[in-house]
Amino acid sequence: MAMFQNCFAILFEMIVNKHFCYTVVFTLLIAASPLSYAAGCLKGAAVGAAVGHLKHHAVLGAVGGCVVGHHMAAKDKKEQAKG
Fold this sequence. Notes:
0% strand, 83 residues, 2 domains
């Protein structure tokens, strides 16, 4: 019985450490990204993740949505500056 308790303790530590590492990396990425790019990227990433979730590729959809959202926001900003 003691062997199983030790295995569960090791497994629990691995899971907690993995989630902690993901949280740290995510926080650093958010802190490092400039806020000027966030407007189009966040909206596009949310839509892309939702659509990508339907095809079991939510992360890929979020990345693609971020790129497209940033492009659309930059294009709108240029149009507003022109006229």
